[in-house]
Amino acid sequence: MALLEGRKISKSFGGVQALSQVDFAVDPGTIVALIGPNGAGKTTLFNAVAGAFKPSSGRVVFDGRDITGQPADTVCRLGMARTFQVTRPFAAMTCLENIMVAAINRYPQKPRSFIEGFAREKLSLVGLADMERLEARHLNVVQKKRLEMARALGTDPKLLMLDEVLGGLNTQEIHQAVEFIRNLRDKLKLTVLWIEHVMGAVMQAAERVIVLDQGKVLMVGTPHEVVNDPRVIQAYLGE
Ligand SMILES: Nc1ncnc2c1ncn2[C@@H]1O[C@H](COP(=O)(O)OP(=O)(O)OP(=O)(O)O)[C@@H](O)[C@H]1O
Ligand SMILES: [Mg+2]
Known about the structure:
This protein is an alpha/beta fold. The protein has helices at residues 42-50, 72-77, 95-106, 112-125, 141-153, 171-188, 199-205, 223-227, 230-237, and strands at 4-13, 16-26, 31-35, 57-62, 65-66, 80-82, 159-163, 191-195, 208-213, 216-221. The protein is 38% helix and 25% strand. Adenosine-5'-triphosphate binds next to strand 2 and helix 1.
């Protein structure tokens, strides 16, 4: 059974149809890439799935439950975490506090010592252990992306949804980040749905690729099938 399923999800903003009858499924334990040209609807799909807003129509099924239109904090407590394309840390809080906020939302009953230890573990996982006491506003763009991931992990998710986390990285760093995310998946037994423009990373990391174009699913396949498909090439070149 799929961990996450979208059934005919549509979303319009005024006159703009951002998503139109989008069907997709993400199997447990897999890394699935969500790709498509700018404005294809990728972030909108995240928002509709993770409770940032309600789809205009269609259903979202997560871990066997219909969560359509449920608010983000409810969805989060069920085990779905997402990062934001434009990172939004609490700038005046320390790195550790940023993750603690996430953990408290997930585990409101747990004592502070647990929350702090849990948060510290996630900070260390993303390589920011040394920055524990630093206010988030002092981080550079790449570190902010890592903190963003640690905040998502701070909610102890089953499904981690990443929205373009490789921005600003060079080729070698991209390779390391891919390894990092694959290891993370194995270690924490995660399922990953990953919006990414860096095709090299998608090719290395993903087991399945969903291609969105103009609010519709253009195709689903392996990375190899997708990059060699004339429809996909056309969608990108036609931009
Ligand atoms: N809050 C909003 N209000 C109005 N229109 C929106 C809103 N959010 C998204 N859109 C529109 O919906 C369409 C899809 O946008 P979306 O941000 O989902 O694309 P994307 O695939 O994530 O693109 P990118 O690769 O540039 O991040 C675009 O036409 C966009 O302008
Ligand atoms: Mg986007």
